[in-house]
Amino acid sequence: MAEHNDTIYALASGSVPAGVAVVRVSGPTVRELTIGLVGVLPTPRRAMLRTIRTRNDLAIDSGLVVFFPGPASFTGEDVVEFQLHGGRAVVDALCRELNTFPHTRQALAGEFSRRAFDNGRMDLVEVEGLADLISAETEMQRRLAVEHSNGGLSALYSAWASRLTRGRALIEAELDFADEDDVPGSVSDQVWDDMELLSTELDQHLRDADAGEIIRDGFKVVIAGEPNAGKSSLMNALVRRDVAIVTDIAGTTRDVLSTDLNIDGYLVRLSDTAGLRHTEEVVEREGIRRARQEIARADLVLYLEDRSVVAQAHDVPAGALRVGTKGDLQPGSQGTYDVIISVETGEGLPELRQLITTALLSKVHVQSLAIPNRRRHKDSLTQCVRAIRTALLDSEKPLDLRAEDLRVASDALGRVTGHVDVENLLDVIFGEFCIGK
Question: Where do the DSSP E strands lie in 218-313?
Fold first, then answer.
């Protein structure tokens, strides 16, 4: 069983072989362990070139050693990093030697970050931001992750938590010392004015939650339409490689096929779906059912119509962009389209990408990236607003009950940063990290 007072180690850099490998060690025996390996405890926060040896005095490698004394380290404990040549045998030899020291073991996934959280070096929002920063693939994902991992969002929540705490304190003072001269009467009136303002601020903040989720998880664009409308061809054209199988046979696409695009620094998740039509074929019907599910979950639907054939009656999803395809062929009938394209000639493709970009930006126009980006953030903040509004709703309700509503609001806000009742979340959150972080 993993013990919190163990010293832990792991490869903290990319997989080997590599030019350089960094092995991180954290825990109560770091000082003794470091002296055992390099013969001296390096000057804090200064890289020192040392020969790393086994306790039998056999050289493992020569590399840089950096010592970070706690509590001013990533984990809040003593930490040492060994920067070695990135060969698999070199790293394995050091790890084998580390494992010979008492109470020393390989770290679990996310255990370094878990210790940073437990030791007060990071809160949950900062931890999640760090995980997002490691996995960021687009510029906007990086910016959002940096804002969260650097504490920008946490500072906002901390300020709100302080206002709730102050409000509760003033109410308690009025309840407990109402007859004392140094406690002015009706101080709670000041509290309710501020709580009204706070609920408005939280409402505005929650309105940006969808934008945060889109930046982090991607803008979901679904390509839909009847069979042979050119859906798979369009997908291949947008991503500029052959992702989907293209044939003249109706019903070739039977399942949802997804790939990612980077548009203006935003992640766009593009999905090709089965052609929408009535059919008795069992597999195709399942594909159509899944297509309709994807359409319902989409941020934007591109509804493709083959303009080279006679137009049929179409059940176009609300808010979809109508795209006329095969623009290089003679039109079979006239229709009203947002854009006409041809994947053969490239006609209309730049205009279509611009329409996708415009639809995306209409959903993520935020002034700041200090915004929630996870469902759990949104749920807890919604509970916080609901509790504040409950306190504000009935001014005739006893003051102690209204104070209890503010306590509920404070606890809900605290669950976002991990200051209240989050034990059941921790294993899930830290389990998403790679070993060594």
Answer: 219-225, 257-263, 266-272, 300-306
345 is in an annotated binding site: no
Q: Is position 121 annotated in a ligand binding site?
A: yes
Residue 54, annotated as binding a ligand? no
Helices (H) and strands (E) in the chain, counts: 14, 12
Output the pTM of the full model.
0.83
Q: Is 275 assigned a ligand-binding role in the annotation?
A: yes
Q: Is 229 annotated as a binding residue?
A: yes
Longest Cα separation, the chain: 89
Contacts of 25 (CB under 8 A, 6+ apart): 7, 8, 9, 33, 34, 79, 80, 81, 82, 98, 104
How many other CB atoms sit within 10 Å of the CB of residue 31? 13
231 is in an annotated binding site: yes
Task: Tell me the C-alpha to C-alpha distance, in Å, between residue 54 and each of 62, 90, 413, 433.
Answer: 12, 12, 50, 30
- Let me know whether 232 and 313 are in one domain: yes
Structural domain boundaries, residue 36: 7-120
Residues 364-403: tens digit of each pLDDT: 988 889 999 999 999 999 999 999 999 999 888 888 899 8
Residue 1 pLDDT class (50, 70, 90 cuts) = very low
The answer to the question of residue 435 being in a domain is: no
In angstroms, rounded to a whole number, what is the distance separating the alpha carbons of residues 392 and 203? 15
Q: Domains in the chain: how many in total?
A: 3
Round to whole Å and give the CA distance between 114 and 425. 12
Per-residue pLDDT tens digits for 4-28 = 789 999 999 988 999 999 999 999 9
Is position 297 annotated in a ligand binding site?
no
376 annotated as a binding-site residue: no
